[in-house]
Amino acid sequence: MTNNIENTTVNDSGEIQAARERVNDLDKSIVDLLKKRFQASARIGQLKEESAMPVLDNSREKQVLEQVAKLDDDPDTQSYLQNIFQEILKNSRNYQHHLIEKEND
């Protein structure tokens, strides 16, 4: 009986490792995409600064969050993805402010 438990643990451990490697690959893709998003956000911030527009655009952020909900057809994860995107939007705004301050120094 002990052998079955040990074999299950070894198999589970291998499956966990494989799943973690998949997560690591996905994390790399997410980081690459977020870097590209920050580059686009930097350009938007520059254009807003040139046009004397505020960094915060509540209607745009609402639109982004609604789009995220539409893109995710799993009601169990929609609110979690929206929370993640709220943080992305907040950090994009902070990055735009940082770049504007850096440019004005």
TrEMBL record:
GO process terms (BP): chorismate metabolic process; salicylic acid biosynthetic process
Which Gene3D superfamilies would you find in this protein's record? Chorismate mutase (1.20.59.10)
Record bears the keyword Isomerase? yes
Q: Which residues form the signal peptide?
A: none
Q: Which PROSITE patterns match?
A: CHORISMATE_MUT_2
Give the molecular function GO annotations: chorismate mutase activity
Segments forming domain Chorismate mutase:
10-100
Q: Which UniProt keywords are present, listed alphabetically?
A: Isomerase
Q: Name one Pfam family in it.
A: CM_2
**SUPFAM superfamilies the record matches:** Chorismate mutase II
Q: What is this protein called?
A: Chorismate mutase domain-containing protein
What lineage is this protein's organism placed in?
Bacteria, Bacillati, Bacillota, Bacilli, Lactobacillales
